[in-house]
Amino acid sequence: MTAPxxxxxxxPAGIGPEVAAAAWAALRDxxxxxxxxxxxxxxxxxxxxxxxxxxxxxxxAGRALPVLPLPFPARTIPGRLDPANAPGVIAAxxxxxxxxxxxxxxxxxxxxxxKKALIDGAGFAxxxxxxxxxxxxxxxxxxxxxxxxxxxVVPATIHMPLAQVPGALTPALLDETIRITxxxxxxxxxxxxxxxxxxxxxxxxxxxxAMGREEIEVIGPALDRLRTDGFDIAGPLSADTMFHAAARxxxxxxxxxxxDQALIPIKTLxxxxxxxxxxxxxxxxxxxxxxxxxxxxGTGTARPDSMIAALRRAESMARQAx
Length: 322
Hints:
By secondary structure, this protein is α/β, with parallel strands linked by helices. The protein has 11 helices and 12 strands.
């Protein structure tokens, strides 16, 4: 990489600071990154090198965690949210995006945020982290992909009640989701012509209309149009037979119709190593596939595996960048 990665601090009362410090300890000789946040929120005893420019990260990472200091209004107690710190959490994300867009860092890895704390403390107006990043980047549509070594999944619809999913599944949504996914698999993953498997919405992919008509009236026609444009697509497929080992070997990414259809298989296969990748942004963004874990913050039991995987995934994407 020509520049280090950046890690935004996330919710300081959660496990973000401690898994970032643990990731630095594991990767300091091989994968330098700079942490954006208030050094007071890091675990006690963490060696810190405060920087003004991310470019200095590689020269100090072997002996201390490189930090771009961002003063917060308050110290923090692990597990106890303090809405006063919400503006600082937002500012850390904004700083990371600014650095990534300027090319000062090779990509942004975001530690988990606590949305209610941001709403209470700063009037946060976005459904989640991903939508905020899209707004900062000035893009109208992004795609969430969860990835591990053995599986990549994309939910076409994300955080909505299951009853609303059929109405949200439009040909335009599926078309845009698949085009963004295919483009960025080529851009960041070196897959110029990815093999795409698409799940049906209903059991047995609708059983020819006996269990629902979305596959016939919405999903199938959208996929046919994409095939005409040269996409390598299989589906709509019965979701209950898409995720065993032999099936996974036949595709590079699975497009799923709703949140749990995508996340259950990947969290079963790689609960501690899954990585959230945002496609459709003009810069690399990854994130651990876990939340703030307030219940174990500060106990020393949080595993850094997903943060380490997110850093390694961002590094790999930066090396593949086209």
